[in-house]
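Contributing new records

If you add data, match the layout below exactly. Sequence lines come first and carry their own label; structure lines follow with theirs. Keep one chain per record. Anything else will be rejected by the validation script.
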Amino acid sequence: MTRPVLLRTRRVQLLLALLLPLLSSCVTVEVGGEPAANVQLSLTDARPDVTRRAQTIVDALLIQAQPAQALGDTQAIAYSRRENEYAFYQYATWTERPVRRLPQLLQRRLQARGVATAVGMLGDPLRADWLLVIGVDDLHHDVRVAPGRGRLALTAGLYDRRTRVRVAQRHFVTTVAAGRADSAAAVAALSEATADVFDALLPWVETELQQGVARAR
């Protein structure tokens, strides 16, 4: 089998569109393993059930996905054997690009928590004074030391839509150990990482919303 195509971080966004059609001859479901049948895997929130707040903070909250780094804006599942170099699993892909999937999962978590009476995506017929913008900065299976770790990094920004001012911003990053050096284990680790990031992001959103509402009074 040919060696995986490796992409430097600074070249990923420029070359990804050209290289994706070639991936079918480059990478297997197992890192360095044997080819297997094509599969589609879903990124999930490993801990979607949360304690609901006694009272909502705002009437409505919208979520917007900002343009992501290349690793979050493709259906290819990335892994890395060397720092700042990436390859892609050949026979396993995301069911939906992470740049779309992660905001959907966050919407469900915020709704379950009861942060707002209604939580929607930007473009929904929902009038809201507050906007949460989510950027996917990193999402890959780091296998520099097997079986590797799932790494997820998000940037969240909270905006007051009445004044068009960003009132808060924070970067969230976590890694979770993978059980094996293959795509299924990578997705399981990344789903746990998603839950870890949400566990940290929700209290931050609640605090910032509470402070924003207090300032507006």
